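Please check this one:

***
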Amino acid sequence: MRIWSWLTPLVLSLALAACQRESAVEAQTVAAATPPPCKLRVGWDPWEPYQYEGADGSMQGLDVEIIRLIGGDADCELEFIRGNWGELLGRLREGETHVLMAATPTEERRAFAHFSPAYRSESFALYTRAEDADAYAAQGLAELVADERRIAVTDGYYYGEAATQLILGEQTGKAFVSAPIVELNYTRLAGGEVDALLDDPFVAAAVLRRKGLDQRISRHPLQIHSGEVSLMYSQAGVDEAVLKRLDRALMQRKTDGSLAQLIAKYQN
């Protein structure tokens, strides 16, 4: 009986220690499986039907639905921050804004941003006043620039390599009139301040309908494919682990077809 009197507490102590070790290992395993908190500031500028504020004040549009889908899959909380594109690029560079939607990867942007896998393609079209449509129909962008026509563009937008060379050219660049927001270009075109503008066809359709300009402004035959667009992440503001979570979520949605279904909803 004396043997059991000291052996029993020892056994109990060893069993308790083993349980504590198992609990600690289990807690560590759960902690490792639980992603760290993720809160992202997503920059947006009015660009219907991709990103815009609805009548009820809620964020809407194709790109908004996509980032919400990806953010939800990656367990990230999103806060939408409005600004014009040029301002948002500056905020992203400083880490004040974490993500921008529908961004074309360029060497200049890679200096301060990471890019997700591409998630949709993007193109631009040329628009003129209706009364000038026939006169300009046979001319491409370079010909219009050579004829000293004034072309409206938006600050910070990428319109494809050929158009960018014209916009940045020492002489040809003088033909381009830049605006901080897209809708200002339509006001300038309707008012005769510029001769044409470049914009995404889906955005143009929404702006022309909303402003009642669909009879005064016509689409030119020129179509510019600017390339594939991605989510653009701030190098200064987005942790690499979070970036990988977002990219995994995006690739999963591409693989299972749900991303293509969402895009098709806006194209049909």
